[in-house]
Amino acid sequence: MVTRRKLLNLLLSTLNVSQLVPHHANAFQHPFSKTVRVYGTQASSKLPEYEMPSVTWGVIQGRKEKLVSRVIIFDYLKGLGIVPDELHDLELPSTVDVMRERVEFLQKLGLTVDDINNYPLILGCSVRKNMIPVLGYLEKIGIARPKLGEFVKNYPQVLHASVIVELAPVVKFLRGLDVEKDDIGYVLQKYPELLGFKLEGTMSTSVAYLVSIGVNPRDIGPMVTQYPYFLGMRVGSVIKPMIDYLVSLGLPKKVLARMLEKRAYILGYDLKETVKPNVECLISFGVRRECLASVVAQYPQILGLPLKAKLSSQQYFFSLKLKVDPEGFARVVEKMPQVVSLHQHVITRPVEFLLGRTIPAQDVAGMVIKCPQLVALRVELMKNSYYFFKSEMGRPLKELAEFPEYFTYSLESRIKPRYQRLKSKGIRCSLNWMLNCSDQRFEERLQGHYIETESVGPRFCMGGKLELPGNDMVSDEEEDSDDEVLYRRTVSL
What we know:
Blueprint: H1 2-13, E1 34-36, E2 50-52, H2 63-80, H3 96-109, H4 113-118, H5 127-140, H6 145-154, H7 163-176, H8 184-190, H9 199-212, H10 220-226, H11 235-248, H12 253-262, H13 271-284, H14 292-298, H15 307-321, H16 326-335, H17 344-356, H18 361-370, H19 379-393, H20 397-402, H21 411-425, H22 431-435, H23 439-447, E3 466-468, E4 472-474, H24 482-492
Antiparallel strand pairs: 1-2, 3-4
Helix pairs in contact: 12-24, 14-24, 16-18, 19-21
């Protein structure tokens, strides 16, 4: 410290320090005392304006003058609690007044001393040449002024950027991906690092790869709005390994593309740490490998959940309260994987309703295994369907146990109209035959003078089509590939 003071005194003795600051102290104005519109337009009280500084970089200095100025500036910054260690190789202003303006400008934005210490290089940005043009542009593209301080905290490097050379091309690129103009600010606030990417680099390659596997180019914009982080993911090390692994589970690329269009955040799951362990966890709980593709297509979020804890908790609950054994629980997960995230009190209500109708607990457990969607139904709707079943249809409870899917159909749009048609024709049939078909197939049945054989009932799959023994598909479109079946299940969600 003594050596430093001697050096400073020696330099001051050979230099008139007053030359480094303005001679007319009264002429110095507060850095926010004058206002002008950004981009050279005239001032107006109706539009938000930034206040321009009155002090420039200062006079031209020699080597000794610069050294003295740097010492004075560093002492000023240390007095504020700012650590200037990273500023030694940075070009600094000629006077402490200019540095003071920068600090005050940043503090007015909402940055604290800790924020500046996290990225002290921000003090190398000129208020006039860097900060004001950049902040004006960010506000122009949709980032509200009260949010600018938070934006700079999250990505202070933006103040070094050139509006014309770096920022504007990125915004133009996002617009070219069909990101709505009003969403640009929202996207950049979620992922401000986008402003530092090169257009010909990661962003372009990630988009090109997703389009190559079947993602609709028109859906890239909504994907960016929902989850812009995939634009910063490398294809070779992140995106492609994830896609390849999901395809290896049996998911067709067409289905995978539809999934990504709706849930781009799947790409953010860690393949090694989360996705693969979760798939192995499903298998360890009894989910069959051939059903993994269907499970992921119905509930893609299952790949990123803390799955082991959830499955353990739900399996124990199903065993204790619903009397469903582990094997039955695995079948439930295969048919409705969303069950791993259902609150237990939600599951309890429909089960208690069924038990309250004098249906044996063993039969209720079987109903849940056959049709897991029961545990997610609203009890009010179940009551209406049940009372119609008992009062109007007058059928035994055994039929509900055999066909629990009855509760999943709309009472007003399907159950009542079809029952009235059958009643008017004097046809007596099972619930399965009456409800488990398309409107077209139902009309075809009514036109015949016979009832089709019901050796084995169809299998109910939420959001999908009905699969009969022999892979016969019951729907308006008689022939569809397995890929199309998974696609329909995905889109229906």
